[in-house]
Design a protein that fits this description.
The complex is a heterodimer of chains A (231) and B (278). Chain A is an alpha/beta fold and 231 residues long. Chain A has nine helices and five strands; from the N terminus they run ααααβαβαβαβαβα. In chain B, helix 3 (33-49) crosses helix 7 and helix 6 runs antiparallel to helix 7 (114-146). Classes of the chains: A alpha/beta (231), B alpha+beta (278). Bound molecules: CO-5-methoxybenzimidazolylcobamide (B1M).
């Protein structure tokens, strides 16, 4: 951990570091033997006390930490549990920040509506994508598993500026993915719709008219940056 | 006739390594103490919630031939097409670790307890695979007790090695080792039968094959049902066919049309495991 001067930049570095190690708060014994030492929650409290703007805490502390984990995940340096533990630590910090943002001011990269397609109940991959996109600043609307096209369209109507993500794990439900994209295109021809999941490929994504394919959550973040650049 | 199997939770508690593999952690990689602790906790929840069950039905080659065709959606050439005609015994199976485990996983995700829910998910997946191994081994033992082990000569015939000739080149030294058929002579009995499971959704057997499999096997009797997209409920369930025969009938190269799209190539590990035992 960064040595503890109480300079804001060191506090932010400690937040990012604690996110990476999954140290959510002082009570948590992750990493083993760290119980009693400050975690994300306590460092965020310190940052707030030092008048560090909440946007800065979010971007340069919490999100910076999770982004490192996302990249390491894509490079096979860390694996699913480390990502989830880091995301949990990040949430401990977000919970501290939320009251400081008026609802509409909560900075966001955009809204991302994500679901697993109709007939498919797999949600591990979807959840990982949601968590890492959230870490990259997206506001996530998780419409769940087994999503009929109508459910997706309704969610998009509620969040007209959103980008959409679809996940499928079975070849049989790839058909449902095609139907979902068609239904979305009917009402929202220019909508950014990205797809992923074990049997999905770049060619398949093109074939069904999706805007792009991402093999993993990090690739999804990069793809969305390309398709829908930040304002 | 389908037979309902008794499977205990103790039997299907998976190895930690298998759980970690489902978490994407490569075999042999050091695992942090906190992740070990998560796994231990998830195993405990699993023990409380699991209700493993299974069903098995032996099937003739003729019936299996019809069943395997399914709705005609399989790839043109598949390993099972070549393996089952040389088999000695075939049985359809379905196993599950039960509904309660899936419910707990879903509840965990709903309440955003992703860390624990995901570890429990991996324990349950590894356990479903373990259940297949348990049932497969029982079927092998029972089938070999019923019919005496084949002679070397029979093995050579079933493995496609013509009498009086050395093993065919495509089987190479690997088959010789597995089958112990490198010498042409002798009628010694040799316990070299092996069993492997093949499932709809893998190796060119279209997942729609689940429909015919379910019609024959009726896994509903143990609480496993099939949805429209051929997904089973409870989620942590596995179905397929056990094929028993000389180990060499299971050898195939991964150069089928669909192998290029496969991301796991775990057929290689399965074949290697035959070498080691089963
Ligand atoms: C929007 O943008 C994006 C971007 C990226 C996106 C994205 C969206 N969505 C996902 N991603 C990506 O990011 C995530 C993180 O990196 C990734 O998400 P994933 O969801 O892919 O990855 C998860 C983090 C971890 N991965 C998983 O959880 C799935 C792993 C694999 C090995 C798998 C497992 C573990 C299991 N299975 Co099975 N299983 C397979 C899978 C093969 C594979 N290599 O994927 C798959 C899904 N299974 C398959 C099959 C056939 C089956 N399985 C079955 C059973 C099982 C287990 C119980 C043993 C176990 C649990 C499954 C479960 N549902 O919980 C059966 C079905 C179960 C059922 N209920 O019906 C059974 C039908 C076999 C049988 N006959 O019994 C295959 C489906 C093939 C098909 N043709 O449809 C399969 C692809 C294996 C294969 N053939 O290679 C990426 O894909």
């Amino acid at each position: 951990m960064t040595e503890t001067t109480d300079a804001p930049k060191d506090i932010l570095a400690n937040i990012a570091q604690c996110v990476q190690t999954g140290k959510a708060d002082a009570n948590m014994n992750i990493p083993m033997g760290s119980k009693g030492q400050p975690g994300v929650a306590e460092w965020v409290d310190q940052a707030i006390a030092k008048d560090v703007p909440p946007q800065t805490i979010l971007a340069e502390g919490l999100m910076a930490g999770l982004q490192v984990i996302g990249k390491k995940f894509a490079a096979n340096e860390v694996f699913i549990p480390e990502v989830l533990i880091a995301a949990r630590a990040m949430h401990a910090g977000m919970n501290k920040l939320k009251p400081l943002f008026a609802e509409q001011d909560m900075p966001s990269r955009g809204t991302f509506v994500m679901g697993t397609v109709q007939g498919d109940l797999h949600d591990i991959g979807k959840n990982l994508v949601c968590m890492l996109l959230e870490g990259a600043g997206w506001r996530i609307i998780d419409v769940g598993v087994d999503c009929a096209p109508e459910k997706l369209v309704a969610a998009i109507k509620e969040h007209p500026d959103c980008a959409v993500g679809l996940s499928a794990l079975l070849t049989t439900t790839m058909v449902a993915m095609g139907k979902a994209v068609s239904a979305i295109r009917e009402s929202f021809p220019d909508k950014t719709v990205i797809v992923g999941g074990a049997p999905v490929t770049e060619e398949f994504a093109k074939e069904i008219g999706a805007s792009g394919y991402a093999p993993d959550p990090s690739a999804a973040i990069d793809l969305l940056d390309r398709l829908q650049p930040a304002a | 006739m389908s037979e309902i199997l008794t499977i205990t939770t103790d039997e299907v508690v998976p190895d930690r390594e298998a759980v970690f593999e489902h978490q994407g952690i490569p075999a042999g990689r050091a695992v942090a103490a906190e992740i070990e602790a998560l796994c231990t906790a998830a195993m405990e929840v699993f023990r409380q919630a699991a209700a493993p069950a299974g069903v098995l039905a032996e099937i003739s080659k003729a019936d299996f031939a019809t069943l395997y065709k399914g709705d005609g959606q399989n790839e043109d050439a598949t390993p099972v097409d070549e393996i089952y005609p040389r088999a000695k015994h075939l049985a359809l199976f379905a196993v599950t670790v039960g509904e309660e485990v899936s419910r707990r996983i879903a509840d965990g995700f709903k309440s955003k307890d992703f860390v624990d829910a995901c570890m429990l998910d991996s324990v349950a997946s590894a356990s479903a695979e373990r259940a297949v191994e348990i049932v497969q081994q029982r079927f092998l033992e029972r089938a070999t007790a019923r019919s005496p082990a084949a002679t070397k000569g029979e093995h050579r015939r079933l493995a496609g090695v013509p009498t009086g000739e050395t093993p065919v080149p495509q089987f190479s030294s690997r088959a010789e080792k597995i089958l112990d058929i490198s010498s042409t002579g002798g009628d010694r009995r040799s316990p070299v039968d092996g069993v492997l499971a093949y499932s709809p959704g893998y190796c060119g057997w279209d997942i729609s094959g689940q429909r015919k499999l379910f019609e024959f096997l009726k896994p509903e009797t143990v609480g496993i049902s099939l949805g429209e997209s051929c997904l089973m409920q409870p989620l942590k369930s596995v179905s397929g066919v056990f094929i028993i025969g000389p180990k060499a009938i299971h050898l195939f190269d991964n150069c089928y049309s669909f192998c290029g799209r496969c991301t796991t190539h775990n057929c290689r590990d399965r074949i290697r495991a035959l070498d080691a035992g089963g």
